[in-house]
Amino acid sequence: MSAPARSPQELHDTIAGGIGESPLRPDGTLKVRGEFAYSSDLWHEDMLWGATLRSPHPHARIVRLDVSRALAQPGVHAVLTHEDVPGENVYGLKYQDTPALAGDLVRFQGEPVAILAADHPEIARQALKEIVVEYDVLEPITDPERAAHDDTLPKLHPGGNLVRHQRIVKGDPAATADVVVSGVYEIGMQDQAFLGPESGLAVPAEDGGVDLYLATQWLHVDQRQTAKALGLPLEKVRLTLSGVGGAFGGREDLSMQIHSCMLALRTGRPVKMSYNRLESFFGHVHRHPAKMYYEHGATREGKLVYVKAKMYFDGGAYASKTPVVVGNGTTLSVGPYDVPNAHIEGWGVYTNNPTCGAMRGLGAVQPTYAYESQMDKLAAALGLDPAELRIRNAMSEGSTVVTGQVVDFPAPVAELVQRVRDLPLPPEPTGERDIRDLPGGASNTTHGEGVVRGIGYGVTIKNISYAEGLDDYSTARVRLEVIGGEPVALVHTAAAEVGQGLVTLQQQIARTELGLTRVSVHPADTSVGDAGSSSASRQTYVTGGAVRNACRAVADAVYALAALRLGRAVDGATLAGGKIVAADGEVVADLADLLGGTAIEETREFHHRKTYPLDPETGQGDAHVQYGFSAHRAIVDVDLDLGLVKVVQLDCAQDVGKAMNPDAVVAQIQGGSAQGLGLAVMEEILVKDGKVRNPSFTDYLIPTILDMPPMRVDVLERPDPHAPYGVRGVGEPPTISATPAIANAIRAATGLELPRVPIRPEHITGV
Fold first, then answer.
1. Is residue 7 scored above 50 in pLDDT?
2. What tens digit of pLDDT does each residue of 159-168 get?
3. What value does the mean pLDDT of the chain take?
4. For the segment 313-333, what is each residue's pLDDT rounded down to a tens digit?
């Protein structure tokens, strides 16, 4: 018997904490009170402490490696090198190119060379100093543009220094236009700056395997890579998610996973590894810096005719997500605009700079900064208001993107721009101003002299979920049973809760679909099917769809059981308030009475509709599942004499398809906007000759509550008919559009070109 179609809106009206509401997060109170257990809090009575020796050089050959003195230290139980990797000493998300421990060559500063386990973390740290490594230091390759084209450079990997080259050709690549503007734009290396450093606890098991408890974004991909390095079957490498203190893409790649498991299996004891902040900067990937050459052509009436672009993405020492960054960067290269003609090329390359990989807005942040800078430049050349130019060229449902894919779902880009443009502006400053409201704040750097105000816009398009032919899916197991006389649902997925509120969302879906109040979420682990990564704004879409499917399968089983036991059909019934309710409102059965001691459990997957690889020559193809759109308007005050910037107001309008949890949606938009603000004016890992110069929160600055301005958030709900509940990914778009909005506002205030972010004081003052 098939379950009848059910309206989530109708059902949620009778169930507290269902879809469309904002129930209290089960982890919220604990986190606010400092009582939440993060992975760095893991403990075992018999555990050892692991530590990692890292290369001080960005490029060098290892001439000699001697661990004997370290192993002889009291309290040290094991010291391991690449020779001790029991399986294959290589892993990677897209390409298998990253050694678990360096062999004869190191390719970036901070690359792991040796690991050890000791009784105490201080013993471990001191023992690292006893490991003898002799290096033959080599000249680092640090220029990504040169690495893409200069065949005379040394090859960092057997296949050369090119990770991926992608071309996109749409329409007439030789098209001409009345008005042409061009620019060269650069974006610095941003760090995810999550507050919970990499950490985990590996516990050897009696079956010769290992149980690993850790903070990650994708349990199953970690399991596959770790098992391969350990030379163990998947079933002997079991992973359980521990408390995650932020991620933003930085936990997609491995850090301590293989190392802690190697040490645990060698010593036969649990091993905990927990990075400090300095090591964290070297222990995870960062956002790709990029250099981009853009040219826009338009009619005199302000309609885009063509876009040409060349983009260079610095992938650093290993591939990580560089192939995806190139794919996203090129396919999203012209923005949320109707562009009939385009010629785009993107290169992702290996260098000896720090490895770069996933970070919020993957591959879209870089081109958005460039094309939104170009849109302001084009508006100035045409004498048009910047918002008006964007509205005239905004794509809509039915538009064809640069890859030839037709947008067959709502794309309210023009409306988003109109909404932020029409939001109230802050009052113009008059009279004597409070110094706390000025650039420089309470430092009393100015009383308003030399301070000018600017307004800027930023609009973006971001793909949701994975793309280019990948079968992206999630798995959910739902169990319904009676506990304490009340029906209770247990939801079990491997989806990583990284702070976005996914645990709450799974409860909301189960409450709505099963008509229950009591819903528990099982800790995420690898004993259930793959859920994919908590990235690409995909989990609400994909895991939400899997939980929905599993719940509906459970509901079908309930209806079948009711028909069997009651001897009557229940067609058209729904589950609400712990009861089966007929279409006419009659209560057919109480779930607790119907189930008794019977438990119903169903496992289901959700696969989104197919995507396809890009044509290698033209870049044409239906590469993406869905797009997200957001628009920001920034108001800034700039001290022209000191180069200081204060963001006065940062407003956002975003289409979310369906606000599953309205409070969480607004929080995601606010948090993403803060990261975009950081990239605009302060966040950058400074790298010189392959070496990181500021690996600390003393010198790598991130926005605090004092840096964040008031925000008006305007949430649109234009359901995507192809998505579960009509949802659209929320987390990434606001990060992307905030940066160019702020940069354009600073340009409007200063009249300067400012072709690079983050914009620092010296860029404004010229000193």
1. no
2. 999 999 999 9
3. 96
4. 999 999 999 999 999 999 999
- Rounded Cα–Cα distance for residues 191 and 673 (Å): 15
Confidence band of 15 (pLDDT split at 50, 70, 90): low
What is the Cα–Cα distance from 325 to 322, expressed in whole angstroms? 5
SS3 track for 463-511 = EECCCCCCCCEEEEEEEEEEECCEEEEEEECCCCCCCCCHHHHHHHHHH
Pick from 478, 483, 487, 482: which is nearest to 528 by CA?
Answer: 478
- Residue type at position 200: G
Strand positions, DSSP E, 250-396: 271-274, 290-298, 304-314, 341-349
Helices 257-267 & 219-230 angle (0-180, nearest 10): 50
**Torsions phi, psi for 599 (to 5 deg):** -110, 140
> What is the model's pTM?
0.96
pLDDT greater than 80 at residue 4: no
CA–CA distance, 301 with 554 (Å, rounded to integer) = 58
Q: Work out the burial of residue 445: count CB atoms within 10 Å of its CB; fewer than 13 is exposed, 13-18 middle, 19 or more buried.
A: middle
Residue 511 phi, psi (nearest 5): -60, -45
d(CA 77, CA 263): 9
The string of DSSP letters for 588-649 reads EEEHHHHHTT--EEEEEEEEPPP--PPPTTT--S---SEEEEEEEEEEEEEETTTTEEEEEE
Residue 233, both tokens = 């079957």
Residue 63: CB atoms within 10 A of its CB come to 10
Using alpha carbons, select from 297, 481, 466, 290 the residue that is nearest to residue 377: 297
